[in-house]
Amino acid sequence: MIGDTQSDYSRGAIWCERLQKFQTRAEKNVPLIVEGKLKRMVGLTLETVGCQAAVGARCLVSSSEGDIEAEVVGFSGERLYLMPTGDIKGLVPDARVVPGQGMYEVEHIEAIFAAEDRKAAGITAPPDGLYFIHADYPAQFELPKQPLGPHWLNMPE
C-alpha cells in the first residue's frame, strides 16, 4: 500500500523542523562547567576534589544557605584547599564546588577603591581581632622600646 503523498510530505516537514531545533541547540557554543565536590572541612579549610584552579582563584561552594565564595589557598595532588570568605553555615559533605573564572582583574580592584565603600568588595573578613602587636628592630637603630599594639595587651597580668 502506498502512503498518501501529502501526509508523507507533512511528516517529513515536521521531522525537519524538529531536527532543526536540535541542530541549532548543538551548534551553540556552551561552555562546560567543571565542578568538584567538598570532601573534608578542617577548621575553616575546605578540601575539594574534582576541579582545578590556581592559588588565589575564587570558587563557589554550594550550601543549603546559598553559594559561599572561597579562595584557593593551596593544593596537593588532585585536591584543592579553599578558605571561605564568608559565613560557612549550611555546608555539607559532597557539596558542589565550581571554580570561578580566576582572580579579580586589576580594573575590578581599582573600582572597589574608587567606590570608597567596603561593601563594593563583596564579602570580606571583618578586621576585628587583627592588631599590630610588635616589631623587632636591630639595636643599631637605637629606637626606644615602647609598648606597641592595643593598650590592653600591655597591661600587667
Mean pLDDT: 79
The CATH topology of the domain at 36-106 comes to Thrombin, subunit H
Oligomer status: single chain
| Helix content, binned percent | 10-25%
- Please trace the helix and strand order, writing H or E for each element: HEEEEEEH
Overall body shape? elongated
Strand order of the largest sheet: 1-2-5-4-3-6
CATH architecture of the domain at 36-106: Beta Barrel
What is the alpha-carbon Rg in Å? Answer: 28 Å
State the end-to-end distance. 105 Å
Proportion of residues in β-strands: 15-25%
Secondary-structure class:
alpha+beta
- Poorly predicted regions are none
Using DSSP, what is the number of strands? 6
Task: Characterise this structure.
This protein has 157 residues and is of the alpha+beta class. The chain has a domain at 36-106: Thrombin, subunit H (Beta Barrel). Helix content is 21%, strand content 25%. The protein contains 2 helices and 6 strands. The protein has helices at 5-27, 106-115; strands at 36-42, 45-49, 58-63, 66-76, 79-84, 96-99. A 6-stranded antiparallel barrel has the order 1-2-5-4-3-6. A hairpin with a 2-residue loop joins strand 3 and strand 4. It is elongated. The mean pLDDT is 79.
Please specify the SSE layout and strand pairing.
Elements: H1 5-27, E1 36-42, E2 45-49, E3 58-63, E4 66-76, E5 79-84, E6 96-99, H2 106-115
Antiparallel strand pairs: 1-2, 1-6, 2-5, 3-4, 3-6, 4-5
